Amino acid sequence: MSKRKVKETHMPVGECISQVQMILRERFCHQRLPEKPVGMESQHKHLLELLRRTAVHGESNSVLIVGPRGSGKTMLLNCVLRELLEVKDVNKNVLPVHLNGLLQTDDRIALKEITRQLNLENVVGDKVFGSFAENLAFLLEALKKGDRSSSRPVLFILDEFDLFAHHKNQTLLYNLLDVSQSAQAPVAVIGLTCRLDVLELLEKRVKSRFSHRQIHLLSSLSFIQYLDNVRSQLSLPQDFPDTKFYDEWNDSIKTLCEDQLVVDVLQSHYNSSKDFRSLHLLLMLALSRVSASKPAIKPTDLLEASRVCMVDSKANILHGLSILELCLIIAMKHLNDIYEGEPFNFQMVHNEFKKFLQRKSHSIHNFDKPVVIKAFEHLQQLELIKSMDSSTAKIQKEYQLMKLLLDHSQIMEALQKYPQCPTDVKQWAMSAFG
Amino acid sequence: MVRYFTRLRVRRIYKWGGRPYIFDRKLKSYGFEYLNMSVEGQEAVTTVTPGQYILIEGNDDEYPFVAKLLKLFGDESHKQKKALVQWFLRLSEVPQNKKLLLGRSPHPQEIFYYLGRACDDEINAESILGTVHVQHVPEDTPFPEPGTKDTLYVKLSWDTKAFNVLDPVLMQDTSASTPPKPALPLFTPCASPTATPVSRGPVHHALPTPDPTVMRRAGSVSDTRATMSAGKRSTLEAESIHSASKLSASKILSAKRRGSAADTPGVRKKLQLSIGASPGKKMTRADVLCELLDEEMESEKVVSLKLSSSVSHSLQHGCSLSPMRSGCKTPNGQRRFPWKLTSISLDRLSPTALGEQDFSSDLLLAVIPLALEDEVFEAGLPTDAGSANTPKKRQATPRRNYVRGQKPTTPSRRKESAMAIREPALGVLAEEDSEDSPMQPIALTPRSKRKSAQLVSLRIRKQLNLLDNTQELISDGDDDCFVPSKKELQSSSDEEKTDSEEETVARKTRGRNCKTSVRTTHKTPSKKVTPSTPRCATPCIPSRTVPARQPGNILEEARARLHVSSVPESLPCREQEFQDIYNFVESKVMDGTGGCMYISGVPGTGKTATIHEVIRCLQHASDMDEIPTFRFIEINGMKMTDPHQAYVQILQKLTDQKVTADHAAALLEKRFSNPAPKKETTVLLVDELDLLWTRKQNVMYNLFDWPTRRHARLVVLTIANTMDLPERIMINRVASRLGLTRMSFQPYSFKQLQQIITSRLNKVKAFEEDALQLVSRKVAALSGDARRCLDICRRATEICEHSASHPSSAGLVKMSHVMEALDEMFSSSYITAIRCASLQEQLFLRAVIAEFRRLGLEEATFQQVFVQHRTLSRVEGLQPISLSEGLAVCQRLGACRLLLLEASRLDMLQRVRLNVSQDDVLYALKPVRD
């Protein structure tokens, strides 16, 4: 069927596919803002209104956007900013300053960054001159000189707001919020954070100066909306050059979303997390399976992608262990059973292992002690076991207390999937007594 | 950048010129005929003589202060150079609001004769920059057209209230008295006794007082007294006897004097000088000011007489006393070596005094009894008996003292006066003590002093014996003191200087040294390589292209008014606090004294706002001339990076200098402990005081110590949140200096909050009464924070606006809107967050609670919880999730702080705790389970 259609379309399938991949990747990698933020209309309106007042009326404000990771805080803000800058009056009037708590780890760096972004007079080229104290005094002086009606509003956007609260004395926050509460240059302080208890982090003086506006982004998306969202995320935009391919693709997506297998996969994803970032990851994996020879996402693609997403990383590591290492793990499991999770040392594990060897009297697994120690150390390097005491130097390796970082179910699952696992080892693992 | 360094690069050297003459015996100050100034490394020497107009280093490099030099004087060490000046003001120095009084555009080169009293007319001679030409322009003549750059014109005088036409006499008279000193080095104002009455007029005009009232009085007195002092010598003798007999009555009189002196600080200062000048005589006259003037004139005459009779004598005198001074200064200024140095000084004194026997044989006799008398007094009789004793002894030898010359008395007197000068910290007490009895040398000295005094008297006795035996030998050894040539004198005094410098461990020179060291550090190349913030940079936010829109409707108007930043017409509900602070600051400004006040209160109770309001009112009052002008400086502990930056900020706001913290501390220390010209009261607001805490608490200590200094004129208002801050974090010596002037701002009650909102809205009808009441009651119950209250109201107006179908149709803010705003701001978001969490997250929370119940603890490891989670998901009929996924779920909950987690490197052993109560979780999860 494809061959006939290729002849009729303007573009070859390969080109269409690359187009599709480009468009959808932009979407999934958050390189492009959506037309309209989904499921947060009221918050969008609130924030837009707030920033518009700062930009147009010169009213100082402060606001916090709170929501779990991946709930679209930055997306919302960027949408609002985009919309705000489209307004003609505002366009040349606001000075956005972007800060991130993970980048500006202390006030000194943050001040330099603010000064640089505001392009104040102590900036030469790309460098900010002056000491920390000078910079602070300079910035405060600059903000103090401004007044509501004549100076440009500054939008301070503090990503990872909670990290700024850990700066010494919260000097930066105090000063920004103080400016926002006094008749100086108009500013809007917008904090983005995922911590619900962020206000408790603020010092009482800082807290008093904060306006206590919080915009919560807690998606109460139902599964039906979630499905709709998946469909719209995968659908091609109207202005796709090849109309025929556009129709085909969108039809295939529609059928895909009605497939029971796909619905199950998405349901389990939805149950695990509602945020779009993990969904995008899933769809991205599915999308990467699309090629010219297979120009549509099939339900199995999605299933496979889901499997990749949800894979247990520890169990994966277990598949790559040698039989000896696996035996040690099983010995540890038995020790855990006997001593109810108390830590063990190498000697105990080795004894357990030797007991097993004696019972089976197999020679294949008969290793020297140094070899076993080596295997034990390898497990430690893989962080499947973890040393309990910090002072490793004092105690001999054999007697260091360890804990197993694996669950029983993980071990059993790994044994089931382990290629050519000796049956006696399997039985040993399954037996209740070591 | 260039401007920044110019001032620092030049280092000037100041040298006295001409012959020194005693003009004030009591203060041991010497007048000088001229001052030579040269710039280091350059040949050119500028000579400044009294009567010339000079430029004085000020805050502004381009426009230094202008003044007329009246007198140059210093103490015997030749180290401290001082000058008396008549100030002139530039227009820029006139307060901004008074400039309009001029009524015309000022000439760029115009200056004003200063008639005010607020400025100290005594300056450090080393701040003189150079000379300038000043020309008096009569009132109705226009300014000369393009005058040379260096010429300044005087037309009017300024008495801090208004511009007046300048009396040409003031200008001419002073210029008439300008002595052509450099040309005639041997010329003295009164070369012979007969010349005295004639030369008196100009001399008195040259006296150091710019105060017109004093001047007038002085003039009149000099007329009346001309008869009295027909023969200088006889007058002097008569008066000395007179004074000695009157001395016992000094206490009563000095009390009187104090009363009259308390009028103005300016007058008081002068009085103290006069007291120092004539300890005995001043009580004989009612008018103390006249007394001072006369005394000064007479002392000058005495000197001149001496000079005319024996030049070498007086020269030798100046030389011999320099070790004395250094010795005296050290024990007072620097208590570390009081014993040794005092004894040294007396040792030195004695041989030199002995040497004078060549001229007056019984001089030694005069020295010794007096010195001993001092010691006896010091040793243990500081009571009335002692002071009664002193005048008697003096009476016994009055003739000798005064006829033979002042020298015998000078050592002891010098000691006192040197002390009075050196130790400004001792304050008024020290000076008043020296008034009471000139023989009471160190009444304030600590106990150690007394011991030292005993030791010294012992030494003197020994010395006496020694002198008797080896008189000739010592006089031979001290030969160089008698060389009358001027050069020799200077070199020897230079030697003395270096000696004393070594002795005093360069204490005195520290100020200058410090300065120069800072200069050099500023000049280091490293500093230049990495330039700091450009000094000329003007910090400002670019201005907007489109003007800000004004509020359009009632709700917008209300919102603008309710913003915390909008300054209300008045501050309601803080009337009492306002009045208290106002009275405090006003009284301090009026008196020219200093003080501290501590203000506490929870955030948002109007502490800073009230103080700003007080300052606004006071500024207004000072504009209206009701109170003296003052300066307001504000620092905030939160707005600096380090507590020591407080110094930098204060100094920068005071003088616009940018220096390092250490240097700033030194400069401020100097500024607040020394009398300075043109000083006005400084009101310093220290916000967020608790952040200025350092381990040694030296920042706080200094802030509270400066106001106690006599010359500081500093009022410190401090703000912090907790009432018991002084007790909690301050060490005793800091808390003690802070004093007990405390004030506490109570949180607002709901009625006050309501009043605040109503007054802010000011008849803009935007709220329902009930709605306002709800807001204020709610906030008052929680915190009493006015900021919060205003923010809620603002939010309510927004909600009201949004809820209306059309922006213009929005009505009043109703209860429902306020309720919504309150909910938004006060309700916890945890429950919503749990409800909005994904199924697995909710399940995990339930697993956590289940595990807690099982363990009976509020803490469990992830592994344990995960087992529960798995069981629960089987019960719920869900596919159990893998461990990695489970960890991810756990981390997500941890990021929201619904759970508190240990570091994630512990993997499945990390412990989990709930950050919300179990009941909240169960409540939030209920609908899900149904």
From TrEMBL, chain A:
Which top-rank group of organisms is this from?
Eukaryota
Q: Name one GO cellular component term.
A: nuclear origin of replication recognition complex
Signal peptide span: none
Positions in coiled-coil regions: none
Family named by the database record: Belongs to the ORC4 family.
Q: What does this protein do?
A: Component of the origin recognition complex (ORC) that binds origins of replication.
How is this protein named in the record? Origin recognition complex subunit 4
Give the organism, scientific name: Oncorhynchus mykiss
Classification from the root reads: Eukaryota, Metazoa, Chordata, Craniata, Vertebrata
Q: Which gene encodes it?
A: LOC110491192
